Predict the 3D structure of the following.
Amino acid sequence: MRRGLFWILLIIIGFSLPATVLAAGTPGVTKDEVTIGMTCPMSGPAALWSAMALGNSAWAKHINDQGGIHGRKIKFVVKDDGYNPSRALANLTEMKDDVLAYGCVIGSATANASKDFLLTSKVPVVHVHANPRIWLGTPAAQRRNIFIAYPDYIDESEAVAKFAVTKMGIKTIALFGQNDDWGKSAEIGIQKAIKALGGKGKFAGFVTFEVTDRAVGGHALKLKELGADAVVIYGAPTQAALIIKEMAKIGYKPKIFTANPLGDPLMYKIAGELWEGAYPAVSGNVSLPGVDPQADRVVDILLKYEPALKGREFLGVTGATTMMLIAEGLRKAGKNLTRESFVKAMEGIKNFKCEGMGAPITFSAKQKMGLNAIRICEAKGGKHVPISEFMIFNPLF
Amino acid sequence: MNLVESYRDDLKLIEKPWTGCWIGMTLLVLVLLPWFSSAHWVYLGTLIFIVAVGIMGQNLLIGYTGQISLGQAGFLAIGAFTFGHLAKLGIPVGLALLAAGLMAAFFGVLVGFPSLRLKGPYLAIVTLGFGIAVYQTFTSFEVLSGGRMGLVVPKFPALFGFSREVSMYYFALLLGLTFTLVTYNLVSSYLGRAFVAIRDNDIAAEVLGVNLTNYKLLSFAISSFYTGIHGAMFGMFMGFIEPQMFNFSESLIIFVAVVIGGLASVEGAIFGAAFVILIPQIFSGYREFVPVIFGVTVVLIMIFEPLGLAGRWFKIRLYYRNWPFR
């Protein structure tokens, strides 16, 4: 029982230590180490995205094995948030005084809940994998520390629809989308495209589903009734796979186009052979393993350090691009590393390709969305093969 | 712990000077926390006070009245979205909070009706169904939930020269203390004793003059009111809510907190809230093993301390009552 008292006292003493006693100089920077923090759903409903943290971690180890950057090794700290926004924010506040920068925040709910903190904490953030429009309307001065290279859904869906009509000869397009702003963004984008095409294509209609829906047989029937040549899918992999299977069951096989979150060839494992011939969009900041040699080289390195990425290579590569951008920022910042010098260095990144992958990324003092781009691919022989050049849109901010 | 010789003795919140001393010290530490601790602990402290309100409400229902409910996430969501919409309309924080609690209480009464006929697992299933129905309703109707981007809720303002986070911390502390005092008084009152009588034997309680219909519904209403306030405070604290934040796992977390903290114990509710917030946070660096660690901790506590953390706290106090003279 006295041991109990000892632990209670120890906790009280530990709790009382002022944070300032523990911190000195630039947070997360020592003579031979720089700490980067990340909150990530490593468990829970979005645990698949843990591969992105592993990708970051593997790339940091790779850099360290090459001697680090300016004599500093990268210490990568990742904390699980279970895709729970309050836990994600708790992780970010916990790491605030211990890291130079945050590497990636994943998911719209998490990003939305953390937005105010990220805007005011003065900790640089590289990559936020969420709808970039959440940052619109925030003061430009507060966005100074935020660096994003994730495509906008409206621009993406507009480009997908235009591509379908002009390059693939599609006459009518239907949308199968999540009943929320993601799906609605896609509807806006497709309608913009149809309007711009001036009668060349037609928008047949929007069939919505809920995030929790698993029985989509009725949705498939509605889509068949719309009779479109192509169905654009804006939803999670589960519903995408289910709707393709249900449509096939009733003998309706339109061309399938999808949003970039379905750009992972992992879709073959979920949807099976029916995925063959689909046209997924892929985010512009990555290249495709199994197709692009640059991506294959990155995959080899990642698997060397994190064998658990086997089977999730695409997500691993996507995650690693964050660490590649951070590494570039660290190189440019030089030996005298502070948050300020890092932000300035990030703002100086021009036409940077992560290990030669993807479209070029450019940040500046005014441009915090470094890349707004996608590429259309075709699912062929178990791979996603690009069939378009990178489509680069104007950055939102 | 002590021989209670009168009703007045039974109503005493602080029985011994030493108890008053450590409660005073704890309060002092909590009030001074933002002055000597990091923003992270202020954040966690705020979250614990907020969650503790909801757990206290659940403890009134599950621990004191013996009505098992697995639909708390539904009441949380109702409270959070009611507050969110009202706050966006410019309704003052106090009024919006009250409305959020009352709205949740109203739905609590509706859900309470089946409790008049159902018990144990059957009631649990009904409440579970309610939680799922609420979640589905919010996901299906964008006008209620704000859609995929969710609902941006105005945050608590910065007051008295403090930052917004510290102001929110003090507001949550004040609300947590208020609800703690109210709950202590509630469980010592006729109402609380009626709840306990229903839990122990509802037929005997009815024979003794406890109106089962009224008190069971009242228990649901009060408990849901607390949960609604919890939801509203959570929405205000995060500044953003979406239906996914109130899924079934949230109901389970609240249920776990009630049991781990200690059934029918006000302190237990606070311990339970601290447990469900701190354990995942402390072990967050263990990545995918966090749920495993959380689960194993729950199992270990249940094996070694079936009365929950409140039971352990009671034993510690009992042991040190005469310390060091043992």
User: Anything to note?
Assistant: The radius of gyration of chain B is 20 Å. Chain B has a mean pLDDT of 87.
